[in-house]
């Protein structure tokens, strides 16, 4: 049964075509095959187009991610008719929507940022403008791509956060495309403001001499972050991006859903995403200190503060991969326990999965993906393959309704009512949880210090990159 | 107590407790309680009396725009250098489509006859922008406490023609032929430091050589194909003393163009301090200095001098992290800096602006700035 008031992603129900783990395995094989082929064509430094450097491929995959989010979450597939979205074959939808997303991505990168902003506002968005200033083509391309990509980094946090946390308010009740354009414009403008305060300073000191008259140099975060690089902001903003999807997926927006009043819940969730992201961000930094020792300002490798901050964001992305796989292809397993227990078990699975993906990447990426061996090569960006894979999964799950392992059905009124009842019953605070909460808090702190104690031992025992 | 409620609360608490601890502890001064104190090994590798470096060639390529066009055309900075179709391994198939095997097969007959100019002429025909190739090489003279000097050739450049010309300009050809040079130290596998090797082998095929142990099979084969017959020492990660007061140190670091690992030279100069000599310093000068601090005992516990390519902005690019380096270098209080090659023109200028003791050069023989210790210039430690 279709529901006009709901978004397409809310009204649909994806049902496994076969029992057991077969659908997940088939979709994994299918998406990995697409990943392998497209990686070779577009990204691989040994492949056809070799977009991996200078940041072009990085820019594309970051922008593709945000376009996919805009299309599915913000615009609810507008301007495509709901009837077509509901009934078209998944392959047809996947192909058409993917091509539209790529076209939109190219429009934003080369049309808006490079063509409009790069020619009429900021030279650093346009490679040709930079070449006129005497830069080589390679670095003109890299700087412009980096500048453009940094906007996508911010938007890929704010755009979904507006929908997930603020529930699309205050435009949630508007019809498309008013709703979509309102949210899009709101988050786009907010992203621009944050861009000016976090990334513009980075671009200002990219040139000799520093551009004192147009940006604050050295930037305000220098003493706190031990670097003048905006990688410091990439770190916490990437964590925000990842936490948005944790909240939306494996955490089911819990525990914020325990707040019954709408606006306090929305504000708490929006701020909560940032708070959790900062906690992860600082911990990922500390992890590196525990494993590799102190950061040393001016270092070029794994002790460089700017790289350490970048690696915070990279580490966060490693954990997003298993989180999305668990949510999409494993039915957000487990579901049989109470919500907090389910959320905790999923989080532990994601931690284990993230560590496994991290280890596998650094052990084998230089063989499989054509990247450089080692952790901290200046041109080594694990975010590219991770986000590239995530893009493919989002297309498979959002655009193709999980084809071939799943088929699309619609939720019945009873099922929707059960979803609401589930939240009301299971996402509720009861006084009986108090003593458990106190014990759990202690256990959580103890677990933290256990990991802190364990990491140097692991570092001394295992060598990932030989 | 309701068991189910307790578990719900406990599950929530575990997450909140762990995340809370992460946020409230991980970046506070208290975190240092779990970080180990630096344990300085203070390895004694002897002392020497002085060190002199003569820059034979620091101009690895002459036109940065052409070089970066090659990089762009081949597919970026992570593409294997042997596939670029750079000389001398050109196969005539164009940028990014070369192989070592096809390239060496074309020039091997000339190498076997010692006709390096002929080999380079073939390479010029089959490769991309052969005339842009130069090379990096310098002569390091280490004087021991008795006043005896030992000469080391430090890298051997790229273009056969350019390196032969540069060797003759500085008398290196004669020193090699006369056996005055004790060994060739190859810092890393990059084309501009290594691919001129046949020029060395032509004058001194029995010369002992040191290479990082991380050379690729093609790089190892090239040593044989160039006609080398002398002792070959592969330097593994860590310290490798070569004479009292001088030690190589191999850093296992990933480098652009798929190269891996770089060796640099530490010299402990009596009553002065530590002098560090690098080819490209891809490991970064701060790591280079910090490694010495953690590993070595040196005079006056002083980081005195630095020579070489410092690999900061080699392609005249810039990044705020390089400013971190310019700012961060200050704490090492280096007294004498001779920089060139991949240091970058902007970096050298920023060093000068920041008041670092940059020893100026003469900008001769195609070197571009007096901020560099250029081709034909010398630097001595102590001054």
Count of structural domains of chain B? 2
Low-confidence stretches of chain A: none
**Spans of at least 5 consecutive residues with low confidence of chain B:** none
**How many distinct beta strands of chain B?**
15
Q: Helix share of residues of chain A?
A: 55-70%
How would a textbook summarize the main sheet of chain B? Answer: 7 strands, mixed
Question: Mean pLDDT of chain B, rounded to whole units?
Answer: 95
Q: Structural class, from secondary structure content of chain B?
A: alpha/beta
SS field, number of helical segments of chain B: 12
- The assigned CATH architecture of the largest domain in chain B is 4-Layer Sandwich
Q: What is the helix content of chain B?
A: 25-40%
The quaternary structure here is heterodimer
Distance between the termini of chain B: 80 Å
CATH-defined superfamily of the largest domain in chain B: Ribonuclease Z/Hydroxyacylglutathione hydrolase-like
Our count of helices of chain A gives 17
Question: Brief overview, please?
Answer:
The complex is a heterodimer of chains A (466) and B (383). With 466 residues, chain A is mostly helical.
Structure description:
The complex is a heterodimer of chains A (466) and B (383). By secondary structure, chain A is an all-alpha fold. Chain A is 67% helix and 2% strand. Chain A has one domain. Chain B is 33% helix and 22% strand. Chain B has 12 helices and 15 strands. Chain B is globular and about 90 Å long. The model of chain B has no long low-confidence stretch (mean pLDDT 95). Chains A and B meet through helix 7, helix 12, helix 13, helix 14 and helix 17 of A and helix 1, helix 2, strand 9, helix 10 and helix 11 of B.
């Amino acid at each position: 049964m279709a529901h006009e008031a709901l978004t397409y992603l809310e009204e649909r129900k994806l049902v496994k075509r076969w029992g057991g783990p077969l659908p997940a395995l088939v979709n994994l094989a299918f998406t990995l095959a697409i990943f392998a082929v497209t990686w070779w064509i577009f990204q691989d430094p040994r492949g056809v187009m070799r977009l991996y450097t200078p940041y072009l491929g990085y820019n594309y995959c970051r922008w593709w991610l945000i376009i996919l989010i805009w299309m599915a979450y913000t615009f609810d597939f507008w301007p495509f008719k709901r009837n077509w979205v509901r009934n078209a074959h998944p392959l047809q939808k996947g192909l058409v929507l993917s091509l539209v997303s790529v076209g939109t991505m190219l429009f934003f990168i080369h049309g808006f940022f490079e063509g409009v902003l790069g020619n009429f506002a900021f030279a650093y968005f346009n490679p040709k403008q930079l070449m006129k200033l005497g830069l080589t083509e390679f670095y003109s391309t890299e700087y412009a791509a980096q500048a453009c990509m940094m906007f996508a980094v911010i938007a890929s946090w704010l755009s979904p956060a507006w929908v997930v946390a603020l529930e699309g308010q205050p435009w949630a009740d508007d019809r498309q495309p008013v709703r979509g354009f309102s949210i899009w414009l709101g988050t786009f403008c907010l992203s621009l403001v944050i861009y000016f305060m976090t990334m513009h300073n980075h671009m200002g000191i990219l040139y000799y001499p520093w551009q004192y008259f147009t940006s604050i140099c050295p930037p305000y975060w220098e003493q706190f972050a031990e670097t003048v690089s905006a990688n410091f902001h990439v770190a916490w903003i990437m964590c925000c991006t990842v936490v948005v999807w944790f909240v939306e997926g494996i955490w089911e927006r819990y525990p914020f859903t325990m707040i019954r009043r709408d606006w306090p819940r929305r504000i708490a969730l929006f701020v909560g995403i940032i708070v959790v992201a900062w906690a992860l961000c600082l911990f990922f930094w500390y992890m590196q200190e525990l494993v590799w020792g102190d950061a040393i300002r001016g270092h070029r490798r794994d002790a460089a503060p700017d790289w350490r901050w970048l690696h915070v964001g990279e580490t966060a992305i490693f954990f997003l991969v298993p989180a999305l796989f668990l949510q999409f292809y494993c039915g957000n397993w487990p579901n049989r326990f109470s919500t907090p227990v389910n959320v905790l078990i999923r989080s532990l699975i994601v931690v284990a999965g993230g560590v496994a993906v991290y280890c596998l990447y650094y052990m084998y990426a230089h063989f499989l993906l054509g990247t450089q061996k080692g952790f901290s090569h200046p041109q080594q960006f694990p975010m590219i393959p991770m986000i590239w894979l995530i893009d493919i999964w989002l297309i498979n799950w959002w655009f193709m309704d999980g084809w071939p392992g799943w088929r699309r059905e619609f939720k019945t009124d009873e099922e929707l009512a059960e979803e609401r009842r589930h939240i009301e019953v299971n996402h509720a605070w009861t006084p009986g949880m108090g003593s458990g909460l106190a014990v759990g808090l202690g256990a959580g702190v103890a677990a933290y210090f256990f990991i802190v104690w364990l990491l140097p031992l692991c570092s001394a025992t295992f060598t990932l990159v030989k | 107590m309701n068991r189910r409620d307790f578990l719900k609360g406990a599950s929530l608490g575990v997450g909140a407790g762990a995340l809370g601890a992460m946020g409230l502890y991980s970046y506070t001064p208290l975190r240092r309680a779990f970080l180990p104190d630096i344990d300085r090994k203070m390895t004694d590798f002897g002392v020497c009396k002085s060190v002199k470096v003569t820059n034979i060639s620091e101009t690895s390529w002459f036109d940065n725009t052409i070089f970066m066009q090659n990089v762009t055309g081949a597919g970026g900075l992570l593409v294997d250098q042997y596939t670029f179709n750079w000389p001398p391994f050109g196969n005539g198939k164009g940028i990014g489509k070369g192989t070592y095997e096809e390239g060496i097969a074309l020039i091997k007959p000339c190498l076997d006859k010692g006709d390096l100019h002929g080999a380079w002429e073939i390479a010029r025909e089959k490769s991309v922008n052969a005339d842009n190739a130069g090379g990096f090489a310098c002569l390091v003279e280490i004087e021991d406490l008795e006043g005896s000097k030992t000469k080391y050739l430090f890298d051997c450049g790229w273009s056969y023609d350019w390196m032969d010309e540069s060797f003759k300009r500085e008398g290196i050809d004669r020193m090699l032929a006369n056996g005055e040079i004790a060994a060739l130290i190859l810092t890393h596998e990059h084309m501009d430091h290594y691919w001129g090797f046949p020029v060395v082998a032509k004058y001194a095929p029995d010369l002992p050589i040191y290479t990082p142990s991380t050379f690729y099979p093609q790089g190892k084969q090239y040593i044989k194909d160039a006609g080398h017959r002398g002792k070959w020492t592969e330097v593994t990660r860590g310290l490798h003393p070569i004479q009292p007061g001088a030690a190589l140190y191999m850093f296992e670091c990933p480098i652009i163009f798929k190269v891996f690992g770089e060796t640099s030279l530490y010299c402990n100069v009596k009553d002065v301090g530590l002098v560090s000599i690098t080819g490209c310093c891809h490991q970064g000068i701060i790591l280079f200095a910090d490694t010495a601090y953690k590993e070595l005992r040196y005079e006056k516990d002083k980081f005195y001098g630095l020579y070489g390519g410092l690999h900061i902005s080699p392609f005249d690019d810039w990044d705020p992290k390089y400013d971190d380096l310019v700012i961060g270098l200050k704490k090492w209080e280096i007294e004498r800096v001779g920089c060139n090659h991949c240091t970058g023109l902007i970096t050298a200028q920023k060093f000068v602006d920041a008041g670092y003791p940059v020893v100026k050069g003469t900008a001769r023989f195609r070197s571009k700035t007096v901020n560099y210790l250029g081709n034909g210039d010398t630097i001595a430690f102590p001054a």
